[in-house]
Every structure is written in C-alpha cells, then in structure tokens.
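User: Before I run my own analysis I want an independent prediction to cross-check against. Here's the chain; please return only the structure tokens and, at the end, one sentence I can use as a sanity check.
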Amino acid sequence: MANTHFHFLSYSPRPLSDDEPQTRNILIFFIPGNPGLIDYYEPFLSTVRGLLDETTSLQHTRFHIYGQDLAGFRDDDHEPFTAQRKPHDLEYQIQHTLSALSRLRVESGSRKGLPYDEVLLIGHSVGAYIALELSHRLLQDQGLAPQLNLTSGILLFPTIHHISSSPSGRKLELLRRTPVLGDNAYRVAQGFLHVVPRGALHWIVNKVLGFPTRATEVTTRWLKSRDGVWQALHMGMDEMQVIGEDRWDDELWEIARDAKAHDKVPPKFFFFFGRHDHWVATHYRDEFIRTREKQVDRTRLIVDEGNIPHAFCINDSEVVAEKVSSWVNQIYGASSDATS
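Assistant: Structure tokens:
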C-alpha cells in the first residue's frame, strides 16, 4: 500500500507532573464509518479527550486519541478513480487501517518512540466491523503487527452482520442488484451534485437537513469532491456482500479462544446498539444479544434507551462521548487505581 498522506485528528495526552514507571501509555484509535471522514467526529473525539482528562481514576494513564480518514474519501489522498482504477473496497480499508495503526508510537515522555502499552479500538458503524476484523486477524497472526497489544474495543452502532437486511441496507442492496443502475449509481449522483451550486448545497445540508456548521462543511466538501461519493457508494455496496453472512457468531468468539491459545488476555468489547437503527436489522441484533448476553466477563451489550441516531456524530457527539468515557474508565480505571 502506497505511503500516502491521509488526513487525521490527533489528541495528545496532557503532560503529567511526573513520568513515573507505572504510568501507562494507551492508544485510543478511532475508525470512522462510511463516509470515512474523520472530521465528522471532531466534536466527539475532543469531548472524549476532555472527559478523560477530568477523570481522577485515570490520572496515571496517558491516553493518546487518534483517528484517520478511510481511504478514497478525499481527492488528495489518491489518483483519480477510473473504470480501471476503481474506489477501495472493505478489505482495502482493513489493510489501510492496520497500516496506520502499526505506524503509531508513544509521542512523548520517557517511552517516546516505543510501542503503546495497550491499544483500544473504537469503531463506528462499519468501523466497528473493521475493528473486530483487525482484532481477530492480529490474534490469529501476531506477526502482522507484533508490537500491537489490542486489549479492548468499543463498538458504536456496529454493523457486523446481515447489514443487507437492515432498512437502509435493503435499499442499497436493491440498487446494487439492479442491472446497469447499480454500476452507474455514482454517475447519477455525481451528475446531480455537479449542477447544484456549492452555496445551494451548503444551505440544503444546513437548513433542510439541520446539520450544524462543522458537519455541514464536511458534508458539502465531500458531496462536491471529485471521487468521494463514488467511494462511499462503491464501499457501501461491497459491505452488502462482505457483511452479509452471520460469520461473527462463530468468528467473533474465536478471538477469545485465540487469545488464550497465545497466552494473551482476550480483548474486552463494549457493543452499543441504537434502539432504532436503520443500518441494523433489529431482529438480528436482538438474537445476537440473546446469544451472547451471558458472556459478561469479556463482553458488554448495551442498547440505547433513548433515540440517539446511527449518525450520532452529527448532533449527538457529547452524549455518546460521555458514555464512551465511562466505558473507558470501567476498562482502565480500576487497574489504574491499583497502581497509584
């Protein structure tokens, strides 16, 4: 994979008064959904940063928060797509994410330049699928990135199986299967977006859809880009095929077995499902929870009691950030206290 620059957001830990040997350096690596633009999540990630800094039980833990675009959503991270050089599929995004994750090292302190003590993956939507796939692969083959110690995952509105059976998935799957139109949907979308002036599109996103200023800017830039919409549609249609089988019913829990086989502590996962999620089939979600709810030692399964939408990063970043910071505290707070 080419060493291309990809846009990222990075939130370094605040300096500690004393860099003691028991201080842990933990990387929180965030994987966005589709469209894979990390700027959508700036309010969320910055709020998580502030909340973790205020948590006294985490005072001996240095969290570095990092998130990066998925490939192909910005025109400056690739050569123009063509019929021969098509947008990236889900497998490419998994490899892209692993490459980015493998390069990161502690940025400051006595362990500067060394691998992080632990890595916490946070994934949203298809980013949750990528997080689980990475966990599984790295436990099966530690040689892929031997310096990475993946210990936990927080999966927000995860689309990890039967995505084509969800309300929105059925529509995209129908489009994918429609002769001629499926392969040319991006042309129709690009043709329409090309004739709409940027100012008018900005007004529609802001006033009609109700997006706040930052999300409006990100959305308008993406919709008016050369390849961004094509990338989103191409990847979305690939998701319909790749995430169609209920493979995680078996393979997700192989992660724990693989970890034990390699004398490693199995990662702990927090799943946060929306109550009404148009990208998740409710009956499959409920079946998944019923099957796994007894495995409380390494898995927490939570269904939102409110009405937070799948695209929480548009208007509900703060409330989800509060939940995530609480789960991070549950994962790392107790052991941090033990070392204080």
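Sanity check: The first helix runs from residue 42 to 53.
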